[in-house]
Every structure is written in C-alpha cells, then in structure tokens.
Specification:
This protein is of the alpha/beta class and about 140 residues long. The protein has a domain of about 90 residues: STAS domain (Transcription Regulator spoIIAA). It contains 3 helices and 8 strands. It has a 6-stranded mixed β-sheet with strand order 1-2-3-4-6-8. Strands 5-7 form a two-stranded parallel ribbon. Strand 3 and strand 4 form a beta hairpin. The longest helix is centred in the middle third of the chain and has 17 residues. The radius of gyration is 15 Å and the shape is globular. The two termini are about 25 Å apart. The N terminus is likely disordered.
C-alpha cells in the first residue's frame, strides 16, 4: 500500500506530488491492488479525511503524516474525520485524533468527527476524547 497525492484532472500512476494551484482541490489517495482509493480532499478551507475500515497502527502513521503535510502546506481551518467506512479503531487511532486536535487548536482551527457508527461513538466516548473534540452523534447509514 502506498500513498499518493493526485490531481482530479491529471492523476499519476505512482509517486507523490503536490499541485501548483490553490484554486483546484486536490485529493489524496492510496494505491490498493493497482486501484486508487481517494481518502482525503480539500473542500474550501476544510480538509475531509475519509478514514479506512480499520483505524489502527497499520494506517495511522501514514494518515498522520499526510494530514500534517496538507495542514502545513495550505490554509486549513477545519479537519473533518469521516468515519463512514470505519468499523474498528484502537488507541493508535485515538492518539492520531488527539494529535491532530492539538495541531488544529494551535492554528485556531477545529476538528470535526462525522458519520460515526455506535461502536465508534462508544470507543470515542470511553476514551474521554469528547472533553476535547465534540462527538456529533450523526450515525453512518
């Protein structure tokens, strides 16, 4: 599995590159079995991160690195973590969320957690993360 940054108009087959223009949104994707799976997209000043089915130590380091790169390279006011596909999360996922919260707080930004199923809501609630990040209660369909 490899991460790459792609342009909507001109995707590349391999590697990581950065767009020149701030006007057009860019997507981040993962190559899995030769297919590009989009997982991160800029929508205005909001970075939307579509999390994988399993948010554990196998994925969090790559996700953390790419989010930090995106936040440092462009104006980002909000980072939204979309849990639509996520069915499992361990302490590595919670740590990744808290770390991004600290970065966004330092930048006067905020973190949004969306589309959590009951299991993910329960894990986050038990972790105490709601003291820092609001849990929105919107459930994945």
């Amino acid at each position: 599995m490899r991460l790459l940054l792609i342009q909507k108009k001109n995707p590349v087959s391999e590697g990581l590159f950065q767009e020149i223009s701030w006007d057009s949104p860019f997507l981040y994707g993962i190559i899995i079995g030769g297919a590009i799976v989009e997982w991160m997209e800029m929508k205005g000043s909001r970075l939307v991160v579509s999390l994988p089915a399993e948010l554990d130590h196998h994925y969090t380091e790559d996700i953390r690195t790419e989010i930090d790169r995106a936040v440092s390279n462009q104006p980002v006011d909000e980072v939204e973590f979309d849990f639509t596909r996520t069915i499992f999360m361990d302490s590595a996922g919670i740590g990744m969320l808290i770390g991004r919260y600290k970065i966004m707080r330092a930048l006067n930004g905020r973190i949004i957690l969306s589309h959590m199923n009951r299991q993910i809501q329960r894990i986050l609630s038990l972790s105490g993360i709601q003291r820092y990040i609001q849990l929105d209660g919107e459930e994945a369909v």
